[in-house]
């Protein structure tokens, strides 16, 4: 029997048991230092995260907050361009030739609005579903627009799966408002429409516009392009905020800049006369089967353009692209396309001879049927032996030989100076694009036959505007006023600037000009070449012209193709208008009858003006003698 107390034996047994367990695997004992290290590590991580979070919060609330706020604002802010209304182009009476009408294009998002409507209907069955709305919207369009739109077309667009579609374009503002007032889901977009109430009236001068992505009208050609800075104005801008579904947030609209509407351009054009001349020119071209026809009407005193017309013009309201496909002519041949004028140019020789005093209207000249100058033989247009023509008769009958006899008295150098003073070989400076200066050989480059051609209107070229301006010089007592077509410009700020009238040049003396003007009445009297230009009860001065065209196959003058011209002053005793006409190789007369003269077209225009303006009839002119014996 063991002598140890029981509690000691138990402890010894427990010790043995513990020792027995330890013999297999020891359980690690965690010390206090290890626990503290891990706690410190976790605490450091938590502190670090708190510091990062606080730093981030501080950044958001200070520097970064402003940046984020700006980004958020930018995401919901929209800047909208507010196009300025394009200004007007008006005639000299203030009648509009081109103006801008504000219109609307209506659009919708069919797929989006269908989902919205059906969702509202499910929430509240009393609200219409999309099918009901489609019928109601279609009915409204039919009610407001009537024959302008087909109800079925609107319904087809509304029931499509498109994300966006235009329902109708370019309708009146009042019509658009009547629809969008009842159906706010229909979007309304401003569209500026350039209106040309006269259609093709003066289109070759006015030009056309195009519409940009923001609806702004921009000058494409003609005066619309040349005065685009004035007419276009300055666009405005406004900003507003939108929701994620593109709805405008109420109260967020703010204007940054108001639009400044465009200014106006006033022309010298007479719309009524322009309309008549355009019709007359087109009719003359069609009747005569000419390759082209043009006419210019100037104010005799100021040189201002009252009308300028070309055949086959265009309607800018239709669109330049469509008109080009039709074959319309968008150019302005009256200022861009020079031609050889023929005998119309003889007025330079007449004015020079009278101004220099080398002849007088009644002097009688023995004029043969042909003349040789510098090795070149020139004939009259008709066969004749020596004839006794007065100076007046030489031009009334359009004798080439007689004209060259007088030009020889003037001399080459003085004649070259008169050509220059009459404005030939140089641009008039008119406010129209593409003006040609024509062609006059430099004096130092004249060859032997040059002086045998220039006085009779061959070997030089001019535009119809230049040709008409020569006769304006004679009608205006010898003072040439370069022609202009713009009368005044009103800037967008309202400042009105009258176009500065060019300084006139006294080409020949007043007495010489008045004498020549009276002499050239002989062209329209019996025995003259332009009797068809005469207007009963009025004195008319003018000059016919026939010039051979260049045959491209031989680079020589053609014996079958001609430029047919006429320029005249009406009335001759109290000049108000100067009219120039050009026909490109007509087959018949301008009324479809025989002959190739442009004189009848002058008669038509002058007679119309006499009636329209109620011009008093002329006193009988002094008798003129064309031929003696």
TrEMBL record:
From what superkingdom does this record's organism come? Bacteria
Where found in the cell? Answer: Membrane
Q: Which GO terms describe its cellular component?
A: plasma membrane
* Penicillin-binding protein dimerisation domain: residues covered: 83-249
Q: Where is the Penicillin-binding protein transpeptidase domain?
A: 294-606
Low complexity bias spans: 11-26
Q: Where is this region: Disordered?
A: 1-32, 108-128, 484-503
MF GO annotations: penicillin binding
Q: Where are the transmembrane segments?
A: 41-59
Keyword Plastid on entry: no
**Chief localization class?**
membrane
Q: Which InterPro entries match?
A: Beta-lactam/transpept, Beta-lactam/transpept-like, PBP_dimer, PBP_dimer_sf, PCN-bd_Tpept
**Which residue stretches does the UniProt record annotate as biased composition, category Polar residues?**
487-497
Q: Which GO terms describe its biological process?
A: cell wall organization
Q: Biased composition, Basic and acidic residues: where in the chain?
A: 1-10, 112-128
Keyword annotations for this protein, in alphabetical order, are: Membrane, Transmembrane, Transmembrane helix
Tell me the protein family, please: Belongs to the transpeptidase family.
The protein depicted here goes by the name: Peptidoglycan synthase FtsI
